[in-house]
Specification:
- By secondary structure, the protein is of the alpha/beta class.
- α2 packs across α3 and α2 (52-64) runs antiparallel to α7.
- The two termini are 30 Å apart.
- Strands 3-2-1-4-5-7-6 form a seven-stranded mixed β-sheet, with helices on both faces.
- It has a single domain (34-250), classed as Rossmann fold (3-Layer(aba) Sandwich).
- The protein contains eight helices and seven strands; from the N terminus they run ααβαβαββαβαβααβ.
Length: 252
Amino acid sequence: MWSVGKWFGADRSEPSHRQDSSPGSPLTATRYDEQYYREHAEAGLDYLNHGFWHESYARMVSETTLQEAYPKPFAIDAGCACGSILKGFKDLPVYDRVLGVDLSDHMVALGRKRFGFADSELMAGSIANLPVESGAVSLVHSAQVLEHIPDVMVDAILDEFARVLRPGGRAFLCLDAMRTGETKEMYMGDPTHVNIQPVLYWTKKLQRRGLLFDIEAYNRFARSRLGPTDGDPRSFYESYPNWSAWTLIRSD
């Protein structure tokens, strides 16, 4: 799932970095069901939106991770909600196969109806048990998902990311994580944010699985001129300076 504070799906948007942690926060759902979808849509993040933002973002991630250089590129979007970013990947003339997996049956049903995904492209299930053979995937993408995962489940999910990636395959992960001087409360506007951790917590876990920080990919992300808004020259990197993003490569 994505967080309202960073991922407004509209073509033109100015997402704020911080969630509203006040008692008046509109987000109260603790299950990923119809209420969760409705509350986020009312707060400004409709998971069924798809447009310039999603198309540009999918292209930026694909170029950052050099997907055209892989034979038969295969992208997984882990925690894809209704699949609006997945559609961006699918519509590119890059991928031989795409797959989105999300815990929410409700979100998956909405996405299949709205975007026309086949059952084999958008599935309800656990991202700790991806229905993919080992070493098959050239891109694991996950945006604003891992902070929703209880600590006890994180290792199994990261093990699964490492399992499905090819040697030399890449991952692009965004999530809410505490930086120096920040507090957990700054990210607690969504009650499903159950695992707000320091950046180093995630980096250590990823490295232990052979998912290494790819500085060349991060440089491509930072230098990309692709951005979220048609007609606005600002890139994703410039528009969202508070993203915590990991560009990773699986060691051989």
